[in-house]
Write a structure and sequence with these properties.
This protein is of the alpha+beta class. The chain has a single domain (2-95), classed as Ribosome hibernation promotion factor-like (Double Stranded RNA Binding Domain). The chain has 2 helices and 4 strands, in the order E-H-E-E-E-H. It has helices spanning 14-30, 74-95, and strands at residues 2-8, 34-43, 52-60, 65-71. Helix 1 (14-30) runs parallel beside helix 2.
């Protein structure tokens, strides 16, 4: 699985890249149909409590999967976004049957 990480309206962070890779690796082992993951980190310039946005788009067999979360810190945003993607992947794995 190829992982692309982009930071929008903020500076890049090697720590966040490593944390994101660590959290996404189990998905590729569990669901072997994943080809690529694109991760976007965005920071809103508002005075809201939840200003960190994490968006992940996954390319796999079939339509592209997408999840997004808006949280107060990066770790929580990644965790919630990946949890949403796991639900979508589990649902797709139940629907798609491999041909033999």
């Amino acid at each position: 699985m190829t992982i692309n990480i982009q930071f929008v309206n903020m500076s890049t962070s090697e720590t966040m890249e490593a944390y994101t890779m660590k959290k996404l690796k189990p998905l590729s082992k569990k669901y072997d149909s994943i080809i690529k993951a694109t991760v976007f980190f965005k920071k809103e310039n508002s005075h809201k409590e939840k200003e960190i946005i994490c968006e992940i788009a996954i390319s796999a067999a079939g339509p592209r999967l997408f999840a997004s979360s808006n949280e107060k810190n990066y770790e929580l945003a990644i965790k919630n976004t990946i949890k949403d993607l796991e639900i979508q992947l589990k649902k797709r794995k139940g629907i798609v049957k491999p041909y033999m």
